Write a sequence for this structure.
């Protein structure tokens, strides 16, 4: 009874910050990760990786002589891992020489084991003998079980998906059309949908968990922008408050805004003579807006193909506008001349926030948008033969 | 030996949730040469088939990787930033010799301390661009911190 009263008193005192409490609480996104490994007797490098609350990734190292370590920082919510490497005097990084040196140390400790967990504000205590995988994790963060569930489900789905993809790829490449390969194609389709839908389903089921953000962020290649946007909207207020949710929403919105079927954003940029030219002047024509740069090898390699398309269709109400994202005007002018680009060449605004590239959601070059006479986007990122085919189809 | 490679890979992928648009991860290290000389090491881990370019790409080609070390009262730079060998190819598109890195790149800068064994931080910025066979990501700046202790 006395104990309980004492505890209650301590809680009150701690909360009102009247006394220095031995058990220091973390605030907000702050975390403390502590480790204690009893069977580590020779020095190890402890690696700790995570993303901080600004989305920056960290890889911290600490040389632990007695198996104890502590890391502090702040994280809104990220996957984190801890692992050990043998410590060799004189080496400050993992390189080939180091790997040769440590070769014989491996096996003395389970160096291939690691602890993966979900990191947010809170205290994390990892303890064990020398094996991180079997070590216990004690924490006031409530997300660990859900993180395990998410990680294992995602990993399984991902493995099954890539296995089937590989099998299907082999079947396709030898051109087999028997019942077995038809069944395989159907099976792949089901698995693909399952795999691609998993993040949205997970996030819909756990709207108040930051792990939903990890799930949604895991696939930004083949994502469904509408679904992504709706799913982010459905998350709880607290989860939506971080940078990650805003970034995801931003990516989704940009993609939706510039999707096939949407009206192309109008722009006005300088040409090679420094004269402003407008996309609006091309209304009534099919126009390919092609984002590129002088320093971009794949863009320069594609230019001869774009010239072929231009010559093939320029008499069919088709034109091209190239928008360079170069920062050095002279390099741009030189490349336009070298590649002999006969159409309108514009240079994008030098301020990224105001740039047309940003408005169009361009994250890499080459990127292009095919716009119809009404000013609507009818094609995107058309390269090689696909560009010929699409332009032929729409100008028919 | 094999084991190490495997778990280094794991460590990278575990944290690689937003790697799609960020194929290069930078880490820094400091190596003590003597009481007055240190080596600042910036390592780039480059994922998949992405290329990071050398500091010495001729003008008119891909943008080279550049390092800017913020000067402070504690140190002086000694020589230029060294880089590993990389791959040098005769690039058919740019019609020039281009050196690039795949998988991993290590850059080293020697510095001289004004006061032996002093403790301070060196801030630096690396600007770089990356390309694979079909696309390039625009030049990007990343802050690096080297802890001399």
């Amino acid at each position: 009874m006395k104990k309980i009263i004492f505890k209650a008193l301590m809680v009150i005192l701690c909360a009102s910050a009247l006394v220095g409490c031995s058990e220091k609480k973390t605030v907000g996104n702050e975390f403390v990760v502590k480790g204690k490994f009893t069977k580590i007797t020779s020095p190890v490098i402890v690696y700790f990786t995570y993303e901080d609350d600004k989305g920056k990734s960290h890889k911290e190292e600490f040389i632990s002589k007695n198996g104890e370590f502590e890391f502090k920082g702040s994280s809104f919510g990220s996957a984190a891992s801890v692992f050990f490497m043998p410590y060799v005097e004189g080496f400050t990084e993992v390189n080939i020489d180091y790997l040769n040196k440590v070769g014989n140390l491996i096996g003395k400790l389970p160096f291939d084991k690691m602890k993966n967990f979900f990191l947010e504000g809170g205290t994390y205590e990892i303890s064990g003998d020398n094996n991180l995988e079997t070590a216990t994790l004690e924490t006031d963060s409530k997300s660990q079980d859900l993180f395990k569930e998410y990680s294992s489900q995602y990993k399984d789905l991902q493995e099954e998906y890539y296995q089937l993809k590989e099998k299907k790829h082999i079947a396709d490449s030898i051109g087999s059309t028997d019942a077995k390969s038809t069944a395989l194609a159907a099976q792949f389709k089901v698995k693909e949908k399952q795999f691609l839908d998993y993040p949205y389903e997970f996030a819909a089921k756990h709207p108040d968990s930051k792990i939903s953000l990890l799930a949604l962020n895991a696939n930004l290649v083949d994502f469904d922008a509408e679904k992504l946007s709706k799913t982010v909207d459905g998350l709880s207020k607290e989860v939506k408050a971080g940078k990650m949710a805003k970034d995801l929403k931003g990516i989704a919105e940009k993609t939706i805004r510039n999707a096939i079927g949407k009206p192309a954003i109008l722009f006005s940029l300088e040409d090679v003579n420094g004269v402003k030219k407008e996309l609006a002047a091309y209304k009534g024509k099919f126009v390919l807006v092609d984002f590129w740069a002088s320093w971009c090898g794949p863009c320069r390699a594609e230019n001869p193909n774009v010239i072929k398309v231009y010559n093939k269709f320029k008499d069919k109400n088709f034109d091209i506008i190239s928008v360079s994202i170069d920062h050095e005007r002279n390099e741009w002018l030189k490349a336009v001349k070298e590649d002999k680009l006969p159409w309108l060449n514009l240079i994008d605004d030098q301020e990224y926030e105001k740039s047309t590239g940003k408005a169009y959601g361009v994250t890499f070059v080459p990127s292009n948008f095919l716009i119809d006479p009404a000013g609507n986007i009818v094609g995107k990122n058309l390269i090689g033969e696909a560009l010929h085919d699409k332009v032929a189809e729409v100008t028919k | 030996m094999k084991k190490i490679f495997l778990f280094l890979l794991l460590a990278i992928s575990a944290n690689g949730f937003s790697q799609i648009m960020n194929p290069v991860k930078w880490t820094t290290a400091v190596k003590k040469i003597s009481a007055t000389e240190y080596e600042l090491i910036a390592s780039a881990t480059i994922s998949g088939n992405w290329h990071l370019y050398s500091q010495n790409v001729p003008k008119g080609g891909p943008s080279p990787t550049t390092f800017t070390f913020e000067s402070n009262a504690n140190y002086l730079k000694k020589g230029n930033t060294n880089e590993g060998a990389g791959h040098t190819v005769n690039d058919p598109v740019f019609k020039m010799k281009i050196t690039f890195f795949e998988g991993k790149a290590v850059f080293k800068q020697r510095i001289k301390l004004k006061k032996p064994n002093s403790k301070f931080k060196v801030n630096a910025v690396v600007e770089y661009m990356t390309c694979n066979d079909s696309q390039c990501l625009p030049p990007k700046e990343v802050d690096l911190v080297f802890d001399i202790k």
